[in-house]
Amino acid sequence: MGSGIAQVAAAAGAEVVLHDREERFVQRGLDAIARNLDRGVEKGRLTPEQRGHIISRITPTTHIADWDVAIAIEAATEALDIKRELFRRLDEATPPEAILASNTSSISITVLGAQTSRPENVIGMHFMNPVPVMKLVEIIRGLATSQATFDFTKNLAEKLDKTPVEVRDFPGFVSNRVLMPMINEAIYALYEGVASPEAIDTVMKLGMNHPMGPLQLADFIGLDTCLAILDVLHDGFGDPKYRACPLLRAHVAAGWLGKKSGRGFYTY
Ligand code: CAA
Question: Are residues 155 and 201 in the same domain?
């Protein structure tokens, strides 16, 4: 998702620093951006010159230090420890007035803000996958988020040609509080032998006009991410209705993480 965010920001005219832990991960992001832009050129949405300008606005790096930026958007793995550590480092690496945003799917923005010396400048900016295609950005205010931070972030989302929606800082926000129980229920239907994966997905695609069935969507999001979000919902609300299906846990334990690992509910 980080590369998707970098792409839409550069396409909107921003100078972007694209960071990942290792060179090969940064390169993977740059390759994905190049592929998406190539498709844009083929389809006549971009000229080769525009493609070149977008790429030239992206500076890749593996270091978090001395970033002279107005906003940093974190899109790391959905794990609290990793995000907490990153927010502490971003707090040191960016100017004190910079906004620190998280693309988290479910983790508390208030908790991330508390890792920094500027919780009023910390906010959630939750994009949807694939970022270049999906219009929604949930904008999540933490307890301490200032109005100025909210206004800047909402305005930025609009500049990126997205539709911002304001939500409050509750587990899973709105998107995953509604989406994940549906995905989990589809996995329970499979677990209990109600129907095959193809049948479950076909019901939701043809019966409810969803672009992807819930099991295909879970594979696309990543089963580890789905499990992490369900655990945040379960812990945060203490309500058994968010209990992750044992079959989802088993898939994650087996390393069957969905599309990215070659196998999830389907094989790729
Ligand atoms: N990156 C960039 N562009 C992509 C893409 C990707 N990974 N995948 C597809 N596209 C583009 C294609 O290039 C195509 O664009 P053009 O028509 O302009 O060429 C367009 O999307 C449609 O693609 P396809 O015709 O190949 O396929 P499709 O019509 O089946 O659409 C889809 C693909 C947009 C992914 C569609 O299946 C869909 O909307 N799926 C549901 C996506 C969804 O629900 N996302 C939210 C997941 S939840 C989340 O992200 C948040 C979270 O916290 C877990």
Answer: no
What atom of ligand 1 comes closest to residue 226's alpha carbon?
54
Q: Catalogue the active-site residues.
A: 105, 126, 138, 176
Per the DSSP assignment, residues forming a β-bridge with 71 are 99
CA distance 254 to 27: 28
Question: Sign (positive/negative) of CA torsion 51, 99, 103, 175?
Answer: negative
Quickly state the pLDDT bin for 50 (edges 50, 70, 90): very high
Taking CA atoms, 171 is separated from 21, 24, 58, 175, 196, in Å, by: 27, 33, 33, 10, 31
Last residue of a domain, one of 167, 197, 226: 167
pLDDT tens per residue across span 14-26:
999 999 999 999 9
Binning pLDDT at 50, 70 and 90, where does residue 49 land? very high
Take residue 198 and report the two structure tokens written for it: 């193809």
14: in domain: yes
Helices (H), the chain: 2-11, 23-42, 48-56, 80-93, 109-113, 147-159, 175-191, 197-208, 214-221, 223-237, 246-253
Residue 153 confidence (pLDDT): 98
Q: Whose CA is nearest to atom 17 of ligand 1?
A: 43
Q: Are residues 128 and 247 in the same domain?
A: no
CA 14 to centroid of ligand 1, rounded, Å: 23
Q: Are residues 152 and 57 in the same domain?
A: yes
State in Å: Cα 220 to ligand 1 middle.
Answer: 10
Q: 107 is in which domain, residue-wise?
A: 2-167
